Amino acid sequence: MEITSERLLIRPLGPEYLETYNAYAMNTENARYMCFLPHEDEKESLEFLKKAEAEWSKPDPVFYEFAIIHNGEHIGGISVHKQWYYFPA
């Protein structure tokens, strides 16, 4: 799945983005408002990226991780998590 606009491309995040992902995932100041960041090391980042890639291939993924591409450069990410709510009648 890819989403495109005039300025951005949003596509699945995976291990091919390790270097550019680490630029923000291991930056403490940048990641201070992010739920699961910063990562401690490259190994932790790679494990996460592999997990995100594997989730995309499931018939019913629990979460989606997207890479935000601007002018051909990976600049960030978006996480979408499925959460079901039950509202009794």
How would you describe this structure to a colleague?
This protein has 89 residues and is an alpha+beta fold. It has a single domain, classed as Gcn5-related N-acetyltransferase (GNAT) (Aminopeptidase). The protein contains two helices and four strands. The radius of gyration is 14 Å and the shape is globular. The mean pLDDT is 85.
Give the structure's gist in a few sentences.
By secondary structure, the protein is an alpha+beta fold. It has helices spanning 18-25, 42-56; strands at residues 3-4, 8-12, 63-70, 73-81.
* CATH level 4 superfamily: Gcn5-related N-acetyltransferase (GNAT)
Helix content: 25-40%
Strand tally is 4
Provide the residue-averaged pLDDT.
85
Strand content: 25-35%
Straight-line N-to-C gap: 36 Å
Could you state the order of secondary-structure elements as H and E? EEHHEE
Total domains: 1
User: What best-fitting shape do the alpha-carbon axes yield?
Assistant: globular
Largest sheet: 4 strands, antiparallel
Instruction: Please count the helical segments.
Output: 2
Q: Which fold name fills CATH's third level, the topology?
A: Aminopeptidase
CATH top level is Alpha Beta
Model regions low in confidence, pLDDT < 50 over at least 5 residues:
none
Structural class: alpha+beta
Rounded to the nearest angstrom, the radius of gyration is 14 Å
By CATH, the architecture is named 3-Layer(aba) Sandwich
